[in-house]
């Protein structure tokens, strides 16, 4: 039996030793340089003030013109060529011109370039040498599924010193992603390798999911067998741990013993990153809950955008259904907004606990009074709007975390999802509250442990190469 374990570990080790080393090395890079994205602060900084005079059609007419039958949110933004309504639903997103209700999909490369240049200038970026690079469905940085409703995407290179590239949705004309030369370079050495993320593979999500899940499971098996053998082979000499091996095998054994707990938990939690509902719940609203949350809004009752006689600083207006009502949200700065509910003349900055409670009791039974989430909560959730509260509604064993700024459900936490938070997130990114409170210490721990894992893996690479070379010579 032990011989079979040795043989299986040996050849799994030969097959996966380089992959292990790559995962640990790229994990360090990913900790400091995440995958490229457009932050809410960057997106909002690129918005222009909305022109009141250009808004001639109602929200209800905009929803009807969009053809989005399950519309749950409507935003009014200003872009080159006029203001547009962005109508979003579970199925798709579409843009409608606010002046006459015509489709506002982005079809012109010249208009795409003008929008990108305006966005860049408002963010203080140099766009003097901007030019269209491509109109395409996928490239290395736009493969995530979240961009599916916006494809194909216009990619514009600004030609600035940072090598910035901006991606625009052909469906709405909005900027949805940006990257810099530095981000792209580091991510080739980080996320792309770590996630096994080449465009040709990741563009087929189902194939990528099955392949990486299987590879991670086999890697976990290899590590588990190695841990078992490492414990069995321990020798004690003068009350000290010793090894029966010599040379690289001895180093592999001893470093492996020191790294066993971290390697096993990190590979296990990395495998769980590909769970996608296989063992744990996905944290998504059930169809019934989604139906309550996104109940068909009475867009005819939506509070209109006031055509004030003086210029306004409002840069985005959003209407959304929440708790059986339609709210209007005026945003004049990243952390400055006002909310108004249909049929109510009063205004507030954020949703209140009472607003959230009215929705929560419709989502699930047995809900208590919502509480504001503390910053050091064990199950953190954050609004994209600085200073906005996040409310937690506990409905028995089911929790909902709701953004007080825009009414989105940020997390749906049942017992399975709460367990997943610890088995995956805590073990893989070490976001334990005590470490999150001391970010510099967390950096040191993560880099130190990943470096230890890398050294251990490299001993396996040397042993594996020698074993493979010997086998080929026989």
Automatic annotation (TrEMBL):
<protein>
    <submittedName>
        <fullName>PepSY domain-containing protein</fullName>
    </submittedName>
</protein>
<feature type="transmembrane region" description="Helical">
    <location>
        <begin position="444"/>
        <end position="465"/>
    </location>
</feature>
<feature type="transmembrane region" description="Helical">
    <location>
        <begin position="12"/>
        <end position="33"/>
    </location>
</feature>
<keyword id="KW-0472">Membrane</keyword>
<dbReference type="InterPro" id="IPR005625">
    <property type="entry name" value="PepSY-ass_TM"/>
</dbReference>
<feature type="transmembrane region" description="Helical">
    <location>
        <begin position="251"/>
        <end position="272"/>
    </location>
</feature>
<keyword id="KW-0812">Transmembrane</keyword>
<dbReference type="Pfam" id="PF03929">
    <property type="entry name" value="PepSY_TM"/>
</dbReference>
<keyword id="KW-1133">Transmembrane helix</keyword>
<feature type="transmembrane region" description="Helical">
    <location>
        <begin position="211"/>
        <end position="231"/>
    </location>
</feature>
């Amino acid at each position: 039996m032990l011989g079979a374990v040795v043989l299986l570990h040996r050849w799994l080790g030969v097959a996966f030793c380089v992959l292990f080393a790559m995962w640990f090395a790229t994990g360090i890079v990913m900790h400091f340089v995440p995958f490229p994205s457009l932050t809410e602060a960057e997106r909002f900084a690129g918005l222009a003030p909305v022109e009141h005079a250009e808004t001639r059609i109602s929200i209800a007419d905009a929803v009807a013109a969009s053809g989005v039958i399950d519309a749950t949110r409507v935003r009014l933004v200003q872009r080159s060529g006029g203001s547009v309504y962005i109508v979003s639903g579970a199925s798709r997103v579409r843009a409608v011109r606010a002046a006459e209700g015509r489709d506002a999909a982005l079809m012109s490369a010249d208009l795409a370039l003008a929008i990108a240049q305006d966005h860049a200038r408002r963010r203080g970026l140099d766009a003097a040498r901007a030019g269209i690079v491509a109109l395409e469905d996928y490239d290395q940085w736009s493969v995530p599924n979240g961009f599916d409703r916006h494809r194909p995407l216009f990619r514009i290179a600004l030609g600035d010193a940072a090598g910035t590239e901006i991606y625009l949705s052909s469906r709405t004309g909005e900027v949805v992603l940006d990257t810099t030369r530095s981000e792209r370079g580091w991510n080739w050495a980080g996320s792309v390798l770590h996630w096994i993320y080449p465009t040709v593979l990741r563009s087929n999500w189902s194939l990528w999911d099955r392949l990486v899940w299987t590879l991670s499971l086999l890697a976990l098996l290899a590590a588990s067998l190695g841990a078992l053998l490492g414990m069995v082979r321990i020798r004690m000499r003068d009350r000290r741990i010793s090894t029966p091996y010599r040379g690289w095998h001895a180093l592999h054994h001893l470093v492996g013993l020191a790294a066993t707990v971290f390697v096993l938990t990190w590979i296990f939690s990395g495998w769980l990153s590909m769970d996608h509902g296989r063992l744990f719940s996905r944290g998504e609203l059930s169809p019934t809950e989604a139906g309550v949350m996104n109940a068909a809004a009475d867009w005819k009752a939506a509070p209109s955008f006031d055509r004030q006689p003086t210029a306004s600083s409002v840069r985005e207006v959003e209407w959304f259904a929440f708790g059986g009502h339609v709210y209007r949200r005026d945003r004049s700065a990243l952390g400055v907004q006002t909310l108004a509910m249909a049929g109510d003349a009063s205004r507030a900055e954020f949703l209140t606990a009472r607003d959230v409670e009215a929705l929560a009791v419709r989502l699930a039974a047995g809900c208590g009074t919502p509480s504001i989430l503390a910053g050091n909560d064990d199950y953190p959730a954050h609004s994209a709007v600085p200073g906005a509260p996040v409310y937690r509604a506990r409905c028995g064993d089911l929790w909902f975390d709701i953004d007080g700024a825009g009414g989105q459900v940020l997390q749906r936490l049942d017992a399975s999802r709460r367990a997943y938070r610890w088995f995956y997130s805590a073990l893989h990114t070490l976001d334990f509250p005590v470490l999150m409170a001391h970010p510099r210490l967390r950096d040191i721990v993560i880099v130190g442990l990943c470096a230890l894992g890398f050294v251990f893996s490299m001993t396996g690479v040397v042993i594996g190469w020698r074993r493979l070379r010997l086998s080929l010579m026989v």
